[in-house]
Design a protein that fits this description.
Strand order of the largest sheet: 8-7-6-9-10
Number of helices: 10
Radius of gyration: 46 Å
Largest sheet: 5 strands, mixed
Helix content: 40-55%
Shape: elongated
CATH class of the largest domain: Alpha Beta
């Protein structure tokens, strides 16, 4: 599979034909109904037969014969895990098959006119005996040998078991793989001289069969890969557009540079006047604390007194190192009242120019009073 995956052209569609040994083939007779309902019945029957759930299997079926009340069909199932392992080289190269068939079914479809056909060929170290009616596979038996004598010894037993299961064995023709032409005389001795036995070539690629065993996960994966390919195409187009925009932007930047140069010249002429205005503003800002009555210690004490929630809370010390900064010490009957006082100062509109915060949790004194410190800074 690794060599085959490496040889597949990049844009080629991939079809996979599975050997009989890789799948379960089961003949079923079910009530005649729609194909959707038959599909559900087949899955239920397969779950009873196999140690897998419906999600772990990919299954399908081919209707061999359908009457008014009964459908005779061949159900096919394959393990998704086995398919994933088999096709890992294809997945690595993003070439997952869009068609997964059974080679025996495809081979039987080459002979639609044969009433009862036996196909004998080798497959993955085994010999396959497949039975078809009018181009549809009805049964397939896998012999774990490619030796003629071993196959011929087992053939009568397999034919008897197949006949007991309802598989027709009155062959009108036996098609043998060309490389097994030396088996024809021995087969004629067992099957009878009236059976036409002919060699057939197996080299030609078969057409897709009636059942596609592509897992749902693969379909989703191919969609994602296709979407990624479209995204790559869009990104390539976006790259071209982006390059064009870069060229336009480069021209615009050159024009802006000329504009900036003109503005810089105007700024250079206005800079002395702007600097003078800035220096004047800085002097006014420096003098503002000294001439603003709201920053006088007396006014601050007045605001601190108005903000006291209860008479029992006392302001013990006010330190104002500058008009823009103060430290307030006090004592409250309890920590809750100290916190209320801090909130009262913060909500005081006359103190809104200050950023007011506490120096941490109040200190609880032996008499259970709370000693606090509050900082204010512009």
């Amino acid at each position: 599979m690794e060599e085959a995956a490496a040889a597949i052209p990049e844009a080629a569609a991939v079809s996979l034909s599975l050997p009989v040994s890789a799948v379960l083939l089961e003949r079923m007779r079910l009530p005649s109904t729609s194909r959707e309902e038959l599909s559900g019945m087949v899955i239920l029957q397969l779950e009873k037969t196999l140690p897998y759930s419906g999600e772990e299997l990919t299954s399908g079926f081919d209707i061999i014969r359908q009457q008014e009340n009964e459908s005779d069909l061949l159900a096919i199932a394959v393990s998704n895990e086995q398919l994933d392992d088999l096709c890992q080289p294809l997945r690595t190269r993003r070439k997952l098959p869009d068609q997964v068939s059974i080679f025996a079914i495809q081979l039987a479809a080459r002979f639609p006119k044969e009433e009862v056909l036996a196909l004998i060929y080798r497959e993955v170290g085994s010999t396959i005996l497949a039975v078809a009616q009018h181009g549809k596979l009805v049964a397939a038996h896998c012999f774990p040998t490619t030796g003629r004598e071993e196959f011929l010894v087992e053939l009568p037993r397999i034919l008897l078991a197949a006949e007991l299961e309802g598989t027709p064995v009155n062959f009108t023709r036996v098609a043998v793989e060309r490389e097994l032409a030396s088996w024809i005389e021995a087969l004629r001795a067992q099957l009878g001289d009236d059976v036409r036995i002919e060699p057939i070539p197996l080299e030609a690629p078969p057409t897709p069969g009636p059942v596609n065993l592509v897992p749902e996960g693969w379909t989703l994966e191919r969609r994602q890969l296709a979407q990624k390919a479209r995204v790559r195409e869009w990104l390539a187009l976006a790259g071209v557009i982006y390059l064009a925009l870069l060229l336009v932007a480069a021209g615009y930047i050159i024009w802006l540079q000329h504009q900036v140069s003109a503005v810089n010249a105007q700024v250079a002429q206005a800079t002395p006047a702007v600097d003078a205005i800035g220096a004047r503003k800085a002097r006014w800002l420096a003098l503002a604390p000294a001439i603003d009555p709201t920053r006088y210690p007396v006014e601050l004490l007045n605001q601190f007194s108005h903000s006291v929630p209860e008479d029992d809370l006392k302001v013990t010390e006010l330190e104002q190192s500058s008009p823009s900064e103060f430290t307030l010490d006090g004592e409250a009957p309890n920590a809750t009242l100290a916190a209320q006082y801090l909130d009262s100062l913060k909500s005081n509109p006359d103190l809104k120019t200050f950023h007011i915060d506490s120096g941490g949790e109040p200190l609880i004194l032996p008499n259970e009073h709370a000693q606090f410190r509050i900082f204010g800074k512009l």
